[in-house]
Recover the amino acids of this structure.
């Protein structure tokens, strides 16, 4: 299960070799579409990638900091530093391919 984070523990949550943060909101239909995709990917990649969720309704400063203008947005962190962002709904296979590439980069 993805780690639900807040502004207070966000930096700690994204620490580590590779972390994917799902910026989402409860009212967001596309976010609900992505939830089972991310859950399946977490089962597959959870031993190599940390999965974190951040509800944009609780604080808008963090989404602004990472230039999250629409949701769902996934921000990839490497060693606690934001590296890339993908926005929108993606099929599991496409995200799996993306994660494989990021893991291969080391």
């Amino acid at each position: 299960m993805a780690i639900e984070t807040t502004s207070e523990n966000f930096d700690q949550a994204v620490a580590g070799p590779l972390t994917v943060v799902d910026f989402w909101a409860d009212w967001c239909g596309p976010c609900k579409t992505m939830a089972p995709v991310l859950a399946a990917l977490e089962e597959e990649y959870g031993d190599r990638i940390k999965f974190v969720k951040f509800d944009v309704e609780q604080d808008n400063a963090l989404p602004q900091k990472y230039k999250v203008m629409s949701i769902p947005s996934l921000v990839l962190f490497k060693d606690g530093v934001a590296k890339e962002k993908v926005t929108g709904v993606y099929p599991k296979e496409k995200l799996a391919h993306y994660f494989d590439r990021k893991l291969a980069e080391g």
